[in-house]
Design a protein that fits this description.
Length: 247
């Protein structure tokens, strides 16, 4: 069976996602990361059609602590050169609101010296394809997890988020594509998932509306898939699936 469109999107994204910045990174100051944009690996500032001409920090904050280190995030407005509508980062225009979450950075602060280091940075080269949101650090029966929420723009609400587990002082990525293919294979004939699936890793559950052929995008008529999940060997897997019929 072919992979679902969501699985295909995730596979493509993981191929182009920039590598983690956990290994060798320079120290930064809190003043810099609050107010200034960092450099991104996959998209640059410049005059090219695929570059951006303006960047600012649209949201900044603390979101958790692990192993004595405090974690901060920054969301960035990236204003691409190809935009046609009027607007600048930080103003009240639709253009500014649309582009306000087009890049993400995660930082860790060492309590012993106050230094801040970049842990992750994400910016999609085709600005406007994905939207980044506030990261989360959560506790789960499997361990400590870090979630980078990433949404594919559009009515499908596609999920291309990245999920990490703390292991031996490092963030190791959890594989989250195979279970979606498995889910598609387990569904009754004639039913499919047409929108993003967003697992809740606190409860290890997920739900998805099921579509029949001819269903409108707004209104699946095939019922709901209720999924229980587990993490095994750094992979998200399905423990159980129940298909509830539509009323």
């Amino acid at each position: 069976m072919k992979r679902s469109w969501l699985g295909a999107v995730i596979g493509t994204y993981l191929l182009i996602a920039p590598a983690t910045a956990q290994d060798a990174v320079p120290a930064l100051s809190m003043e810099v990361i609050r107010d200034q944009c960092i450099e991104f690996a996959e998209v640059k500032q410049g005059n090219g059609i695929a570059e951006y001409n303006e960047c600012n920090v649209s949201e900044f904050g603390e979101f958790g602590a692990v192993d004595g280190h405090t974690y901060y995030f920054a969301l960035y407005c990236l204003m691409p050169n190809w935009r046609t509508a009027v607007g600048k980062c930080g103003d009240d225009s639709f253009t500014a609101r649309y582009h306000r979450g087009r890049a993400l950075a995660v930082f860790s602060r060492n309590p012993s010296n106050g230094n801040v280091q970049l842990v992750f940075e994400r910016a999609e080269p085709e600005i406007g394809v994905v939207l980044y949101s506030r990261p989360e650090i959560i506790q789960n029966p499997a361990g400590t997890l870090l979630i980078l929420p990433i949404t594919v723009d559009g009515t499908g609400n596609g999920n291309v988020s990245e999920y990490y587990m703390r292991d031996s002082g490092r963030w190791e990525q959890i594989e989250t594509e195979a279970w979606l293919s498995d889910l598609g294979n387990r569904l009754p004939a004639g039913l499919r998932i047409a929108k993003g699936v967003w697992p809740d890793l606190r409860t290890m559950r997920a739900g998805a509306g099921l579509y029949r052929a001819g269903d409108a995008n707004c209104c699946p008529t095939g019922g709901t898939a209720r999924i229980r999940l587990a993490i095994r060997g750094m992979r998200l897997v399905i423990e159980s699936l129940v298909v509830e019929e539509a009323p």
